[in-house]
Q: What sequence folds into this?
């Protein structure tokens, strides 16, 4: 596969941003419903909002698949290109998010008010927008008021439950809310032969193990909050959770591959092993990177190395069979692995060669025309199998743009640090302490 030039990757990212801005919907200030038509994102008018896919009617303010994740990608683009057009669009996106705070019913990081607060706080911190900061405070006040003493709903994981709320609260500077969110894990931990795990959704018999919905997502929150709040009991519990997952490794002493869940959840539709951020070693490595920092134990670095070995030998990004590697996005696809590859480049001086392969794959799979650039994921069980392109962080343009631009900076000697640190992605630090 041909190596991609940084200029070409930048041009592709610019096209992806153009497509995103072309998909935006204008909203009047204070009106979360939006008006007809699209808006290119220029000017200083009312709000901007996005739907999950261009054909949808319902605006989506969330971090996972909607406006909040897109706003963070716009901040990334502003910092990378030094172009205020993207900053203006981010401010307008924040207006539509702020307008949705009063009516949004979910509280979580990826699907609710906590993630909306993360985006609003970022616009305040990066661009000095006081209204966005005030809206972030309102959002977190609503989250705090909804706590029932144990959880915010049926999910108890990173994407939709306490762990993500804790990480989002930390990202916005609210350590008290973060402690409130993780404290229930102390009393709900279930002992296992090697450590502990949790029921991460009410009524789910299977215990999931990875970052998005399982034990390692809880571990990430416990370790992060334990460090921030000087709570060794939380850090100790995090280590016990990680030990349970490590004991489930089935890749031998040189690799790291843990099943999706035990007993297997929905075996008729979910594969037992994955490799991406959400349910595989690309995400597991991020937790081990964090534990290395928090615990100061080199054994966690070795586990991150083993995750990297498994990822790079798995065959991705080649789509070698139906259902294998059908996604280019950040959550469970190529962009999420690219994030880890660039972390490896910053911290270990390795990873860039594999990152080049991943970027070349993203370039080859992009659709580029007069409307810009975007990516179609695949559902091999459906006909036609190519899905409509998505806008947001998890499976769409926003998450891919963010990682493409970081790869350009990493490979050209520019500062590879993100404009905004993602709540569950530990900053990469080189041997001199610099961030990437």
A:
């Amino acid at each position: 596969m041909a190596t991609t030039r940084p200029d070409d990757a930048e041009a592709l990212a610019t096209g992806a941003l153009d497509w995103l801005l072309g998909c935006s919907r204008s909203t009047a200030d204070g009106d979360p419903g939006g008006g007809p038509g699209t808006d290119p994102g220029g000017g200083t008018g009312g709000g901007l909002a996005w739907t999950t896919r261009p054909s949808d009617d319902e605006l989506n303010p969330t971090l996972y698949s909607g406006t909040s994740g897109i706003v963070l990608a716009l901040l990334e683009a502003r910092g990378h290109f030094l172009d205020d057009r993207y900053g203006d669009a981010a401010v307008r996106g924040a207006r539509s998010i702020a307008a949705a705070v009063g009516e949004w019913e979910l509280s979580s990081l990826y699907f609710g008010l906590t993630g909306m607060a993360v985006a609003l706080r970022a616009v305040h911190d990066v661009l000095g927008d006081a209204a966005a900061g005030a809206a972030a405070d309102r959002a977190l006040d609503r989250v705090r008021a909804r706590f029932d003493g144990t959880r915010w709903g049926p999910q108890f994981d990173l994407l939709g439950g306490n762990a993500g709320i804790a990480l989002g609260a930390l990202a916005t500077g609210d350590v008290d809310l973060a402690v409130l969110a993780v404290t229930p894990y102390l009393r709900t931990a279930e002992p296992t032969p090697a450590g502990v795990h949790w029921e991460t959704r009410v009524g789910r018999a299977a215990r999931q193990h990875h970052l998005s919905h399982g034990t390692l997502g809880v571990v990430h929150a416990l370790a992060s909050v334990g460090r921030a709040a000087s709570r060794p009991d939380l850090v100790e519990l995090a280590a016990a959770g990680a030990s349970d997952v490590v004991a489930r490794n089935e890749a031998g002493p040189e690799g790291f591959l843990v099943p999706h869940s035990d007993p297997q959840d929905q075996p008729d539709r979910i594969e037992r092993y994955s490799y991406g951020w959400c349910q595989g070693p690309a995400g597991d490595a991020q937790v081990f990177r964090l534990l290395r920092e928090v615990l100061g134990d080199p054994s966690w670095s070795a586990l991150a190395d083993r995750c990297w070995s498994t990822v790079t030998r798995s065959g991705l990004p080649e789509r070698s069979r139906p259902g294998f590697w059908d996604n280019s996005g950040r959550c469970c696809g190529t962009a999420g692995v690219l994030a880890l590859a660039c972390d490896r480049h910053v911290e270990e001086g390795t990873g860039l060669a594999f990152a080049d392969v991943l970027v070349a794959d993203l370039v080859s799979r992009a659709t580029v025309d007069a409307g810009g650039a975007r990516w179609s994921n695949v559902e091999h069980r459906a006909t036609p199998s190519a899905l409509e392109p998505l806008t947001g962080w998890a499976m769409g343009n926003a998450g891919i743009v963010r990682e493409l631009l970081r790869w350009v900076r990493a490979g050209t000697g520019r500062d590879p640090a993100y404009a905004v640190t993602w709540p569950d992605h530990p900053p990469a630090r080189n041997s001199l302490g610099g961030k990437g």
Summary: Confidence is low (pLDDT under 50) at residues 34-43.
